[in-house]
TrEMBL record:
Family, per entry: Belongs to the UDP-glycosyltransferase family.
Name of the protein described by the UniProt record: Glycosyltransferase
Lineage: superkingdom: Eukaryota
Enzyme category, top tier: transferase
Swiss-Prot/TrEMBL keywords: Glycosyltransferase, Transferase
Pfam families to which the protein is assigned, alphabetical: UDPGT (PF00201)
Lineage: Eukaryota, Viridiplantae, Streptophyta, Embryophyta, Tracheophyta
Annotated EC: 2.4.1.-
Gene3D superfamilies: Glycogen Phosphorylase B
InterPro entries per UniProt: UDP_glucos_trans, UDP_glycos_trans_CS
GO MF assignments: UDP-glycosyltransferase activity
Length: 484
């Protein structure tokens, strides 16, 4: 960092811990490496205990502010997550403009700090209008997904115009430069129904991506090397792309992590149970902060884990049949005892090999534990990165959003996961779990590949590594733009 007042960055996190966590980690990295300060701006709809715990754990250089509530009662009860997030952002623009204006003035007057940039994630693109009106010259897009997802969205306006009918009905996969071919059924869920408002929301946001001065992506070259090479090349009309990941939640003591906040006793129970298990013997089963299974699949998963004969730690949540996906996304805590949905006698039969916890587990600590040897995951990108950083191979069971796309890239591209087929019966689940944990074929190859990716991720974050160099370049540009 150059001499003079420290730079300040304002960051807008749209709803979802999967958006806030990596932005918070980016803010912490800017503070520790570049002496910057940052303000994380959140929405009133996500003022949960989990979010409050995360914000309270941030270092002094990173502060937070919440936008006032906006009325979303006119939206349909089952409105898609993407629609709700985009609409909440659009209705918050006047308040955000005032906040950014006041923030810039306060920083300059009180500390001499310069508000050098505004960073928003992909569902906050309309907030660029507020940043511009508040006089913030540099506006950057943060992608908490991977480079495959970014490539798809950058091409979305053209794809929407050229693909007849629905993506799920395509006879051939979608082919993008450097990307693994994407079957139409694995295109992200908000794009699977053109009549749903979420489709037009996604196209609208995609068109605005190119307004960014830079696109920062929470991924790294080794996990998707071909598309990283494509996006590294300058392209007219497209902002420069910087893979700056993996940015994952770092745990300290008993603070909240990517899986949510836990009281000390359940947290300790998870880790104490793992302490008693052999090395690399446990498969961790969790579907993220917004994921839940239908009753039938939940039942088959239980029986499949039992049939596999492997040790398991399962974060059990009430089935998705009990409510809408948006309900789970904004408040994933189970409203009912999730154990009542398990097969009769399952808890008693598996008590010596399995631990079940309701709703939440200390995910980062579990993945980092020596006893954890596999992860049955929904393929949310934060969870995927946490698994790779800790060298844990995956069974892919995607649910929604871009998770099916992630599963394609992980299983068919880099080879870091074994994907479960669409028909998820107990025999299939048991066979895949056994293969991942102890198999000599595909399981062995996945375990080797994940160990390689763990090493590559660490190297990229070291001084002089690819991710560190990319972020250094971004900050240098911010400084130069502010000086001119």
């Amino acid at each position: 960092m150059k001499a003079g007042p420290p730079p300040h960055v304002a960051m807008l996190a749209t709803p979802g811990m999967g958006h806030l966590i990596p932005l918070a980690e980016l803010a912490k990295r800017l503070a520790s490496r570049h002496g910057a300060t940052a303000t994380l701006i959140t929405f009133a709809s996500t003022a949960s205990a989990t979010q409050r715990a995360l914000l309270a754990s941030l270092p002094p250089a990173v502060s937070s502010l919440s936008l006032p509530p906006v009325d979303l009662s006119d939206l349909p009860r089952g409105a898609a997550i993407e629609t709700r997030m985009s609409e909440e952002c659009a209705r918050s623009l006047p308040a955000l403009t005032r906040l950014l204006s006041e923030l810039g003035e306060t920083m300059a007057t009180a500390t001499g700090t310069r508000l050098v940039a505004f960073v928003a994630d992909q569902f906050g693109m309309d907030s660029f209008d507020a940043a511009r009106d508040a006089g913030v010259r540099t506006r950057c897009l943060f992608i908490p997904m991977n480079l495959h997802a970014l490539s798809l969205v950058l091409d979305l306006p053209d794809l929407a115009a050229s693909v007849p009918g629905e993506f799920r009905d395509l006879a051939e996969p979608v082919r993008l430069p450097g990307c693994v071919p994407i079957p139409g059924s694995d295109v992200p869920s908000p794009l699977q129904d053109r009549s749903n408002p979420s489709f037009s929301v996604m196209v609208h946001l995609a068109k605005r991506y190119r307004e960014a001065d830079a696109i920062l992506v929470n991924s790294f070259d080794a996990v998707e090397p071909e598309v990283a090479e494509v996006l590294r090349q300058p392209e007219s009309g497209r902002p420069p792309v910087y893979p700056i990941g993996p940015l994952i939640r770092q745990f300290v003591g008993s603070e909240a992590d990517g899986a949510g906040a836990l009281p000390p006793s359940p947290r300790a129970a998870c880790l104490e149970w793992l302490d008693r298990q052999p090395a690399r013997s446990v498969i961790f089963v969790s579907f993220g902060s917004g994921g839940a299974l239908p009753k039938e699949e939940m039942h088959e998963l239980a029986l499949g884990l039992e049939l596999s004969g492997q040790r398991f730690l399962w974060v059990v949540r009430s089935p998705s049949d009990e409510g809408t996906l948006s309900d789970n996304y904004y408040n994933a805590e189970s409203k009912k005892d999730p154990f009542v949905y398990l097969p009769e006698g399952f808890l008693e039969r598996t008590k010596d090999v399995g631990l079940l916890v309701p709703s939440w587990a200390p995910q980062t600590q579990v993945l980092a534990h020596r006893a954890t040897g596999g992860f049955l995951t929904h393929c949310g990108w934060n969870s995927t990165l946490e698994s790779l950083v800790h060298g844990v191979p995956m069974v892919a069971w995607p649910l929604f959003a871009e998770q099916r796309l992630n599963a394609v890239m992980l299983a068919e591209g880099v080879g870091a996961a074994i994907r479960l087929p669409e028909r998820k019966d107990k025999e299939t689940i048991a066979a895949v779990v056994r293969e991942l944990m102890a198999g000599e074929g595909k399981g062995a190859m996945v375990r080797v590949k994940v160990a390689e990716l763990q090493k590559a991720a660490a190297e990229g974050l070291r001084d002089g590594g690819a991710a560190t160099a990319a972020l250094d370049e971004v900050v240098e540009k911010w400084e130069a733009d502010e000086a001119n």
